[in-house]
Amino acid sequence: MSNRVEGKIAIVTGAASGVGKEDALLLAREGARVVLTDLNEEAGHAVAREIGDTAIFVPHDIASEAGWQQVMQRTQDRFGTPGVLVNNAAVLALGSVEDTTLEQWQRVMRINADGYFLGCKYGVGAMKASGGVIVNMSSVAALGGMGVFCAYSASKGAVAALTRSVAAYCKQRGYKIRCNSVHPDGILTPMTAALMQGAADAPATHEQQGGDPMQRMCLPGDVANLVLFLASDESRFVNGAELRIDNAQTIMGVA
Fold first, then answer.
1. Where are the transmembrane segments (predicted)?
2. What DSSP state is assigned to residue 140?
3. How far is residue 26's CA from residue 182's CA, in Å, rounded to a whole number?
4. What is residue 255's predicted lDDT score, i.e. its pLDDT?
5. How far is CA 67 from CA 9, 36, 152, in A?
């Protein structure tokens, strides 16, 4: 299959590196015009140049309402009305309920929860007349207990609940907007490698992983493949779903 999102206009947050970068590259390869957003301007512009004329980069703090207004305006001016929004940008913070400070809690929630709320709010506003898809990046931390990720787990739980609310609201209003959440167990990115012991030494390619059935760290490309499916018309009846990408880790109940 090819050109699975031909003609679609997609916004991808956190697109300068990691999963967001892979999302943007794959959506572009499959026919979408892509608006990349991130705080890292140098890397973001580099990804946009790699894609070519069908991509632009917009500097963006996802927790800023004015920032979202600018992204939507830039998208409209360059390509037209967006039909896909991938809320991907986030921060990961270690800390139990005893270790986490209020300042740390508020920073994580501002980005991971407030930022996704604003994305959904402005995404729905832009898409309600013509329809579209919202993909929210959550985590298995939203589904199970992860004691060392207090604020992060709470923020990703908010993303999962927000997703269900948006999906229900859009259906009730008759908007042709689907909203789903993606829940990885762990992704090999620079962010996780910096925080999780041993992640930097984990196999970085499918070949290196060698089909290991116990492997729990997926690759950015694995997530991008799922995002592509959700962004495409192939998933037209998938709405309000929580899709785990965790190699059965969650159902095994193993920390």
1. none
2. G
3. 17
4. 54
5. 19, 13, 23
pLDDT of 49 > 50? The answer is: yes
pLDDT tens-digit map of 200-246? 455 554 444 456 666 778 899 999 999 999 999 999 999 999 999 98
User: Distance between CA 180 and CA 159 in Å, rounded?
Assistant: 10
Annotation says 169 is catalytic: no
Whether the Cβ atoms of residue 71 and residue 37 lie closer than 8 Å to each other: yes
SS3 state of residue 229:
helix
Interaxial angle between packed helices 150-173 and 115-127, expressed in degrees from 0 to 180 and rounded to the nearest 10: 20
pTM value is 0.91
The token duo for 3 is 């050109």
pLDDT digits 0-9 by tens, 145-165: 899 999 999 999 999 999 999
Distance in angstroms between the alpha carbons of the first and the last residue of the chain: 37
Domains of the chain listed by start with CATH number:
9-186+216-252 (3.40.50.720)
**What gap in Å lies between CA 135 and CA 180, rounded to an integer?**
5
The tokens describing 228, both together, are 């592509």
Enter the DSSP assignment of 239: -
d(CA 209, CA 159): 30
Catalytic residue among 116, 122, 152, 175: 152
